[in-house]
């Protein structure tokens, strides 16, 4: 599985955690990383054909970013507006991204318990990330469970360091795709009558 990580951070040199994630991705086989802020420059302008070819040559696309005002930094929106064009990503007969997967890797300043009904952010991360899920649906990609690292404002360095291995395992897991996981479980049940009986009980 070939993975493309699109990192959207205004300044990775000033990042506490996204810089470490970016470095780990860059050092891992079968992962291509792109710093969108560096590539797009001050005007956030992208070579559309080049970016589209990158998407087509990878199986799983990762949007990596810090959560800013319940969304991504502007450079990711600029990239989406320019690259996910009509006739390529959507439109009659033009969904060229069908069959690919989209997963988000996100850091937040607020603690996990603030992203719930009754918390000071009021909504869950799944609810707040719906626009990205809809982007996947619109383009024919499979939206996968996001990786979210909470509480960056107060978290210890050791926890940030530990997040690297956890994140790598998350985005490289083939069974992050529920269809693949279900196919494996179906095969297990098919070959194990006792297990199948327990599941159906």
TrEMBL record:
Residue runs in coiled coils: none
Keyword Oxidoreductase assigned: yes
Gene3D superfamilies assigned: 3.40.50.360
Record keywords, A-Z: Oxidoreductase
Top-rank taxon, per record: Bacteria
Flavodoxin-like fold domain span: 1-169
Protein name per its UniProtKB record: NADPH-quinone reductase (Modulator of drug activity B)
Organism the protein comes from: Pseudovibrio ascidiaceicola
Classification of source organism: Bacteria, Pseudomonadati, Pseudomonadota, Alphaproteobacteria, Hyphomicrobiales
């Amino acid at each position: 599985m070939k993975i493309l990580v699109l990192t959207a951070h205004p300044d990775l040199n000033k990042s506490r955690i996204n810089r470490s994630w970016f470095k780990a991705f860059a050092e891992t086989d079968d992962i291509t990383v792109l710093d969108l802020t560096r590539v797009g420059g001050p005007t956030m302008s992208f070579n559309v054909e080049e970016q589209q070819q990158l998407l087509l040559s990878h199986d799983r696309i990762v949007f990596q970013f810090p959560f800013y005002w319940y969304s991504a930094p502007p450079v990711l929106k600029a990239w989406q507006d320019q690259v996910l064009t009509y006739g390529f990503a959507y439109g009659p007969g033009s969904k060229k991204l069908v069959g690919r997967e989209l997963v988000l890797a996100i850091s937040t300043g607020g603690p996990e318990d603030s992203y719930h009904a009754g918390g000071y952010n009021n909504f869950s991360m799944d609810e707040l990330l719906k626009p990205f899920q809809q982007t996947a649906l619109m383009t024919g990609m499979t939206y996968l469970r996001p990786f979210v690292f909470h509480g960056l404002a107060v978290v210890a360095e050791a926890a940030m360091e530990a997040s690297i291995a956890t994140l790598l395992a998350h985005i490289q897991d083939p069974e992050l795709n529920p269809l693949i996981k279900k196919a494996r479980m179906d095969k297990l049940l098919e070959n194990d009558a006792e297990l199948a009986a327990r599941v159906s009980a």
